[in-house]
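Supplementary Note 3. Input sequence used for the single-chain structure prediction.
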Amino acid sequence: MRKRIILIYPFIVITALFTLISSFLMSQNIVKDIDGNIYHTITIGTQVWMVENLKTTKFQNEDPIPNVTNNSQWTKLTTSAYCNYENKIVNGKVYGHLYNWYAINDSRHIAPKGWHVPSDAEWTTLTDYLGGEDIAGGKLKEIGISHWKKPNSLATNKSGFTGLPGGYRSSSDGSFCEFEINGSWWRSSDTNTYEAWYRSLLYNNSSVYRSYLGLYECSGFSVRCVKD
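The predicted structure, written as discrete structure tokens, is reproduced below.
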């Protein structure tokens, strides 16, 4: 009996500590991914969004997401992958990673537990709450020109979303494009078709653009998660 107590006690302590840490993170409006990256959260209308772009290198089950740096290899992918803009680690730390369409729709789930990649409808809920696509972009962009290129038109970040211009990776040749000019975020595939839709913000206006890539699943965009 004594040996059984000795074996169980450490497990109880570890479980209690994990519960306390999780409760603390929730009380501070922050969430942690499988890699241990910390994200702040913000309530916008009826939704709770992450304030930073996703940086995970693993799915929820801890399977690794391949980091594909070679341009030619990137364009031929039919499976999940991520990269940093220009393959620079520092860009990944500031702007988050760029993921292909396969990664954000993988059944192993790229978002932390309790979170998900937003659907098209959820993006629309966000932009509608902020006054519509013509003006919502300004309320979503980080203010100033620390990250955005001048003039960063009409940026107020009134929502607290703090959108950054992480650029994107082209599906045609694997090149990196529009850093500091464009911030683009995937939406999940919430239909029965493989439609690669995304939302984007630009440095020179206040709009939110809803765009469709057809079958170009190898484009690399940022990911911003919303709470279940």
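The helical segments are 2-27, 71-75, 89-95, 101-104, 120-129, 133-140. Residues 1-9, 22-27 have pLDDT under 50 and may be disordered.
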